[in-house]
Amino acid sequence: MLYWLTELSDGGDFFNLFRYITFRAGGAFFTALVFGFIFGRPLINVLRKRQGKGQPIRNDGPEGHFVKAGTPTMGGLLILSALVFSTIMWARMDNVFVWIVLLVTLSFGLIGFADDYAKVSKQNTAGVPGRVRLGLGFVISGVAAYVSAISHPEGLQFQLALPVFKDTLIYLGYFFIPFAMVVIVGAANAVNLTDGLDGLAIMPVMIAAGALGVIAYAVGRSDFTEYLDVHYVPGTGEILIFCAALIGGGMGFLWYNAPPAAVFMGDTGSLALGGALGAIAVTTKHEIVLAIVGGLFVVEALSVIIQVLYFKRTGKRVFLMAPIHHHFEKKGWAEPQIVIRFWIIALILAMIGLATLKIR
Q1: Does 229 reside within a domain?
Q2: With b meaning 16 or more CB within 10 Å and e meaning fewer, what string describes 329-340?
Q3: Is residue 15 in a domain?
């Protein structure tokens, strides 16, 4: 919205700053951060009043979680509100990739909101049936994948780009659509599985968003892509503004989600933010790099898959409890110890993912 101020510029005044993506990204970050600080406490008070008993706690979960009973959920509403408001304020809204990422985020947020509402209103952990959530997620991601594919430059449409082997493109044709659907839905559910401890999911999401924001900015500049020998996707630079807003909104939320949490993110936030990461990866042609940058989420999801398959086959468990962060809880690790160590791992993986821009 504020980009229109460039029309008032003669090329050498303050308004000229709004032409620069980096300046607007900084503005988006601080806008979302301040939004979170201002509206965080009032939103928590409303959620606590309306939800009564708060998010139901699993009976088979770690014993330490029962002290969290009564904590309100749907805190993702704070992140999404700050994110959407800030992105609309600072990004160019004539950019198709910004719209793709925004709509995927909001759509998955609605699915998560319905799930959270069902859990709170019925006071059980069932929520919306998994098949319904997956079905809706695949429909949304299918539309996003198709629009993204036809919006890419002609030489990149329906192609799979590989990190490191940068001259290699694998033409998937219309199989690119289901591939991209799996990336987006998989990312959404992987973040959702990670969201099990205070502050555990939001910081790795912000770290991954930061890395993907740098990638989006680099991929959207022809001079950077020529130097780095990566594929140029015009327009993706504006996604940096979305990522900056996500980080700002995430920090505002973390202020209240830090142990002991005053509010939980809920599926409203985790599904939305995971879907956002997947959509960014698809629009920037860095789907495989997402598996590195978001490697922590991949491990969390794999731990659940391995646990379920092994238990069905043998009747025994690989982990004391899945997802894997609960395994470490069962082993006696303190919650802050798990959270901070997982943050460190997430940061290391993000750095490795960024390194793929240069390695060839």
Answers
A1: yes
A2: beeeeebeebbe
A3: no
Portion of the chain with pLDDT greater than 90, in percent: 78
Q: Which residue has the tokens 């990638």?
A: 215
Give the residue from 212, 209, 231, 211 showing the smallest Cα distance to 221: 231
Question: pLDDT value at position 121?
Answer: 84
Please report whether residue 17 resides in a domain.
Answer: no
The structural domain count of the chain equals 1
Residue 109 has pLDDT above 80, yes or no: yes
Q: Is the Cα dihedral 222, 226, 228, 232 positive or negative?
A: positive
The answer as to whether 360 is a domain residue is no
Instruction: Tell me the pLDDT tens digit for each residue of 289-332.
Output: 999 999 999 999 999 999 999 999 999 999 999 999 999 999 99
Q: What is residue 60's DSSP assignment?
A: T
CA–CA gap between residue 329 and residue 334 (Å, rounded): 7
Which domain range does residue 251 map to?
A: 24-355
- Select from 39, 40, 29, 37 the least CA-distant residue to 90: 29
Give me the phi and psi of 147, to 5 degrees please.
-60, -40
Separation between Cα atoms, residue 22 and residue 25, nearest integer Å: 5
